[in-house]
Amino acid sequence: MQQRRSSRPVLRSLSLALALALGAVAGAQAGGKPQGADRSAAQPVTDRIIVKYRDGAIAPATTANARLASPSAAQARVMSDAANEIGLRISHLRRNALQAHVMKLERFATKPELDRVLARIKADPNVEYAEPDRIMQVMFTPNDTRYGEQWHYFEATAGINLPPAWDKATGAGINVAVIDTGYRPHPDLAANIVGGYDFINDTFVSVDGDGRDADATDPGDWYTNAACGPAPAPPSSDSSWHGTHVAGTIAAVTNNGIGVAGVAFGAKVVPIRALGRCGGYTSDIADGIIWASGGTVAGLPANPNPARVLNLSLGGSGACDTTSQNAINSARSRNAVVVVAAGNSNVNASNASPANCQGVITVAAVGRNGGKANYSNFGAAVAVAAPGGNMSTGTANGVLSTLNAGAQGPGADNYEFYQGTSMATPHVAGVVALMLSKNASLTPDQVKTMLQNTARPFPATCSQCGSGIIDANAAVDAAMGNGGGGGGGTGGVTINETTASNNTRGTAQAITNRSTTVNGSISSTTDTDFYSVSLPAGATLSASLTPPSNADYDLQIQNSAGTVIARSELGTGQVDTASVRNSGTTATTVFVRVVYYSGATGTTNGRYTLRLSW
Question: Of 184, 298, 307, 550, which sits with the fewest C-beta atoms within 10 Å of its C-beta?
Answer without folding.
Answer: 298
